[in-house]
Amino acid sequence: MKTAWVGLGLGLALALQTTLAPMLADVGAPVDLVLVVVVTVAVANGPLAGLWTGTVGGLLQDALSGGVVGVGGLAKSLVGYLVGQLSSRFFITRAWHQLLVFFVASVVHAGCFLGVYGLLSDEGTLTSYGAVLAQATANAAVGVAVAVALAAGPGALERRRLRRRSATRRFGG
Hints:
Blueprint: H1 2-19, H2 21-27, H3 33-45, H4 47-65, H5 71-89, H6 95-120, H7 129-171
């Protein structure tokens, strides 16, 4: 069941990344939603899940973006594995812990991606530090929002079931 949820999350992230993210990037919020899903899965399920989510998500994103296929998959796999290892050793429960993890993971991803892409491509991709920090900040904000929503989701569903059950008992419906 977890695999289905991860696949649904990756599919939704890829769909939003290819449709909405280009419009948001023009406004100044360059979010990598696939990386947000990879980090979220790695924090929740460990290094192996982060590695595979990063591999699949990165390769699919590479195939859809038209760049060098495999560079994003490698970078996201590495980040997923490292975040999974970190989360298996430390409790990442508070919002500022999650913010820090998403921010550092985004910076590491950008370093890996740009480094490997620069080695493979002749055109040489130049990115400013400001652009990397802007994307890391946007990824961290979206990642924490997703983590808070996922943490609140099961409790909200349970409260709704309990309210419905008590209303049914009271009114005999």
